[in-house]
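Hi there. Long-time user, first ticket. I'm pasting a complex I've been working with (about 616 residues overall). I'd like to know whether the download I got is complete or cut off, because the file seemed smaller than I expected. Thanks.
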Amino acid sequence: MEIDILVSEVGPRDGLQSIERVMPTQDKLDWIRAQFEAGTREIEVGSFVPPKLLPQMADTAEVTRRAAALEGLTVAVLVPNRKGLEHALAAGAHKVSIPFSMSESHSIKNVRKTHAQMLTEIGACIELLASLDARQRPAFEVGLSTAFGCTIEGSVPEDRVVRMAEQVIELGVDEVGLSDTTGYGNPAQLKRLAQGIWSAIGRERMTGVHLHNTRGQGLANVLMAVELGFTTIDSSLGGIGGCPFAPGASGNIVTEDLVFLLESMGLNTGIDLERLFEVRAQVQAALPGEPMYGFVPDAGLPKGFKAH
Amino acid sequence: MEIDILVSEVGPRDGLQSIERVMPTQDKLDWIRAQFEAGTREIEVGSFVPPKLLPQMADTAEVTRRAAALEGLTVAVLVPNRKGLEHALAAGAHKVSIPFSMSESHSIKNVRKTHAQMLTEIGACIELLASLDARQRPAFEVGLSTAFGCTIEGSVPEDRVVRMAEQVIELGVDEVGLSDTTGYGNPAQLKRLAQGIWSAIGRERMTGVHLHNTRGQGLANVLMAVELGFTTIDSSLGGIGGCPFAPGASGNIVTEDLVFLLESMGLNTGIDLERLFEVRAQVQAALPGEPMYGFVPDAGLPKGFKAH
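Hi, the file is complete. Here it is re-exported in full:
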């Protein structure tokens, strides 16, 4: 059966990079395989950043290579720059995202690059990709991060986000993603932003959203995203790495609660919820004492619940 | 400025009846006054049930009488039957709700009444109300509880809910409310149910929803409710009484997160979020050790956030 919404699992990247401990490579691969077998078809497995910055991600090349052996799984990775893209290409990633912070202050603080410098970096990535044979080229996406507001600048002007999306597409990027890095977003804002960006670059150039649940608004924003026609939604198993009590934590949407929302609405995700709960237990066992979030795993499925 | 959405606070009733300890009457009144002063315009202050069943609600008559002195506050109460309605009238409640479980098994288990017996009881309430002078008559609402599914029966047929709503309105009830007692609901189901009921009885006969967050779907359901045109939404300060780990707990939507959702979307609730956080602290102090829920109070408001 065809999938209506692609739930893209970001736990092995966004989740694990937000907790202090380092998950052993084999545990990551066991997680990825188990979640693939539960029906997940896209997993962001790591980030090609210097290991001294994020030791949790030091094995991303190996994880990428081995995950790519799972037939039917799209292996996504994050890169901060062209150098990271080179590593991603060498490891055989199917999809590569580079975050581009819509707040210039945040961009400077986070990756020490102005907007102009980031556009140059993205241009360099495009140049590298253009030199490849089309069959070797991964999908390349720019994540418009802090698009809903920034902890340094506060509100981020919506017309700036639209303009940046346009510039990025003009550079030759396949697609942009809309990212509520700070959990500031609300459904009305999501609607305005999406419509503004789609008017500028076309709907086919933006199909995915990365929303956070920092303020408990994650699934309300998801509902709006689905109504608007987004078809890829990011989430993290057990909301790993997110905690409203820890400043700066990611606060990802919990995969289990997201899949329940979509399936109960009759939207096929291809994911088996009961098996997803087993993956949760497996990952919890690999991360003893690490908090895991979500309501559906604790409350259980409704009596007589049938997924799509 | 006119209110777009009435956030009806149910904490002093639904919240407090779900926890074991009994809040002293003065603390309840301090809570109600503080939340009224923060901008809340409707509060469900208690339930007229036998004190031996729910000692937490034993002071409902006094709380109702004293809360009614707050000029501009709608004082709502819950009653299980005509006897309870008599007490509510004597205490001067402005709005009275009687829950009517759409699952007959649940109704029998909970209040020992079949659907036919409940309709008779509601008819008896209408008779009593009809004997009053119009100016003394409180608003009378039937809450269609377990409308989204039941922990005993599982799924509840939607056409049964529509038929029951119709029968209740034919008896002379002012309004019905749609209630997801079990936290089974999803936005698609809410849309079908609301449209089905509105087709049968008219939109003006159902303007409020009581949604739960047991499976983390509360605010997604709220967004759908707002899009559909519901104008009254129930919630509980700090989600008191709700806990996904405790079977049977209410799992109410958290008022703080709900008000944030609505205000950030540009919908006026009349409620001042900063003052609401102060009420939360006050209630927490009156209930030491009692878990309080919600994301916005912990994460804080976004930098530069301006309410409507």
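A couple of notes from our side: Chain B touches chain A through 42 residues (CB under 8 Å). Chain B has one domain: 6-299.
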